[in-house]
Design a protein that fits this description.
The chain is α/β, with parallel strands linked by helices. The protein has a single domain, classed as Thiamin diphosphate (ThDP)-binding fold, Pyr/PP domains (Rossmann fold), CATH 3.40.50.970. Helix content is 40%, strand content 14%. Strands 2-1-3-4-6-5-7-8 form an 8-stranded mixed β-sheet, sandwiched between helices. The longest helix is centred in the C-terminal third of the chain and has 26 residues. The chain is globular.
Length: 301
């Protein structure tokens, strides 16, 4: 049973006022994440947009313990925090490593892979705004094909890395894909991960008005369009069993996905993208979506 928005806990751990850009969806996701962990957590956060949102010592916009760490070391630092909690008998505290796509798919992937191989008792959550937004919108391994950044000014030529499949290949017990604009989906997956042990990986799409070039008021609409087009898929893999969730499960039944052309038309970062590129991405999406639906149906039997 999915949690309804009206049933989310009322306690807030993300406080009013922060330094995030107008319309940033990171705050939406973080509110759901901290509620799911009931504030009983310690975070490891590298240099990132999240660091900006959190604020600089001695002030903070987040009412949970927070450790700022070096860019490549998020999972390593989280592993150390987990070891320290074990040594002091604190089994009531969840360690949350939370980094952007650059700090996860690129700069931090070595430490993350090592933590997953060792089965460290942490939740690692990547908030994916699809570029290095905190340093000027440079291309990352998670930037989608065709997107213009300050380092791919004619459009990126490659598809994004599939971090969920990479982490699933590590044999971790829980892997999930979600979106910040579906807070109940985020909440349910983080709450489930909280009740498990070992390394758990969650990938959260996080629409970015400034980096994607759309109006701040349209953040939720753009995020939902990404899911409706099948570019972002809501799902989880628990002990090898795959399941579509929420909006993606509904789309699998109805078959009424939006087109990628509708999605890219709503964002300035895709301005000038060739029709041929859009067609290539649409074919890739269709094949990828068919694979997700087939796996969902097979594992449901």
């Amino acid at each position: 049973m999915s949690t309804r928005i009206t049933d989310l806990p009322s306690t807030e751990f993300v406080l009013p006022g922060n330094r995030a850009c107008a319309g940033c969806s990171l705050g939406i996701g973080l509110r759901a994440i901290t509620k799911a962990l009931d504030g009983k957590m310690v975070m490891a956060v590298p240099a990132s947009c999240l660091t900006v949102l959190g604020g600089m010592y001695p002030t903070s916009s987040v009412a949970v313990p927070w450790v700022n760490v070096a860019f490549p070391s998020t999972a390593a630092a989280a592993s150390g925090l987990a070891a320290g909690l074990r040594a002091t008998g604190r089994d009531d505290i969840t360690v949350l490593a939370m980094a952007g796509d650059g700090g996860t798919a690129d700069i931090g992937i070595q430490a993350l892979s090592g933590a997953a191989e060792r089965g460290e008792d942490i939740i690692y959550l990547c908030y994916d705004n699809e570029a290095y937004m905190n340093t000027g919108t440079q291309r990352s391994g998670a930037t989608p094909q065709g997107a213009r950044t300050t380092t791919t000014w004619t459009g990126k030529g490659e598809h994004a890395k599939d971090m969920c499949r990479i982490m699933e290949a590590h044999g971790v017990g829980y892997v999930a894909s979600t979106s910040a604009v579906f807070p109940t989906d985020v909440y349910d997956k983080v709450a489930k991960a909280r009740g498990l042990s070992g390394t758990r990986y969650i990938h959260m799409n996080t629409p970015c008005p400034s980096g994607w070039s759309f109006e701040p008021k349209d953040t939720v609409a753009i995020g939902k369009l990404a899911v409706d087009a099948g570019l972002v898929v809501l799902y989880e893999v628990e002990d090898g069993r795959f399941r579509l969730t929420g909006r993606s499960a509904s789309l699998a039944k109805s078959g009424r996905r939006k087109t990628i052309a509708e999605y890219v038309a709503a964002q300035g970062r895709f301005r000038g993208i060739a029709d041929e590129t859009v067609a290539v991405v649409q074919r890739w999406l269709d094949e990828r979506w068919a694979g997700f639906v087939s796996r969902h149906e097979a594992d449901a039997e």
